[in-house]
Each structure stands twice: as C-alpha cells, then as structure tokens.
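INTERNAL AUDIT FORM
Audit reference: QA-55
Scope: verify that the stored structure record matches its stored sequence.
Auditor: D.O.
Record contents follow.
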Amino acid sequence: MPRAVRERQMLDAAVRSFGQQGYRAASMDEIAELAGVSKPLVYLYLNSKEELFSACIRREARSLVDAVQSGVRPGVAADRQLWLGLRAFFEHTARHPDGWSILHHQARMHGEPFAAEVCVLREEIVKFVTGLIGEAAREAHRDPALPDGDVAGLAQALVGAAESLAGWANENPGVSAKEAAATLMNFAWAGLDNLMQGVRWAPSPRP
C-alpha cells in the first residue's frame, strides 16, 4: 500500500480517537488497531503521540480553511460571499465533528505546541473574513468610512461567534448547518450594515 494511503488511514484513526476520547485518553494501541496496522508502524511513520496529534491538527485545520475558501464564489454580492463562507464552515464542522473537537477543544486544552497550530488556523480564517467584510464595505460605499480597526474587530468577533456556534450546533442534532449559518448571518450582517451606514451604538451616560 502506498505510504500516503497508509498514513491517511492512520490519521483518520487518530482523529477519530483523539476527537472522541481526548488527547490524553487516546492510546497508540487503539489508533493502530483502528487503522489496521501495527503500533510500531504508527511510530515509524509519525514518531510519537505528540507528533501524531500535531499532524492531525494541521490536517484538520487545512481541510477547514480549504472548505471555507472554496465555498466562497468570487463575483457574487458581498453578503452572498459571507453567507457562503459561513455555510461552508458550518457544513464542514458538522461533517467532521471529531476534527472540530480536536481543533476547538483538544488542541487548546493541552497547551503548546498544539495551541500554536490552532492559532495559525484562526489567523488565516480571520484574515479571510477580514477581506470579505472589507469587500462588503467597499461594495456599499465607493469611499467607505469603516475604519480598519472596526473591520478587524468585526472579523475577530465573527470568527469567535462561529467557533462557539459550531460547538453548540454539533451538540444539538436538531440544528442544521444552514440554520447555524443563518443565525450568525442575521446577527452579523445587521451590525455590519449599521456600521457602514454610520449608525453606531453608544452607551448611555447613566451608569
């Protein structure tokens, strides 16, 4: 069997084990059994449990970023692009709950270097979403007044909300990916539209 195919089988088994049991509880024996290989072969290919977990994080992160980016179709309206990106995100996390558990829970719970791998993923998605929001502002106004700080802050808030909502949706089978995307779109787009129109919330002078 080609090395790439064998390694994919190992990573598939590892993602399932890490995602369902957690990093510490997952065993190399079980991963080898799920992959249909010997434990020494897993070590030969991926060296250690730590390196295997890091490889899972990188693969699942790349898969998620690719899904979101490929879900957006250039040339359509800005709100449509954002909607397509959100829907692709929620569809992917719903189809790959074990991978999402690794990225959203397991990697962050066990510190460096695993958390750093997830930070790279998050920065790439935030950068992509920042571009979508900036494009929405340019589409709405030829000379948009929306400050760069607002665009960056909205992107961070939107990605954070999407992460939390994906975890909630995966724990509630009755919530579809489309419904989760629509919930966040309704929440985010109204606020973005207000900012582009110069409508801003301000705290009351009363305490």
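Auditor finding: record pair retrieved intact. The mean pLDDT is 85.
Action required: none
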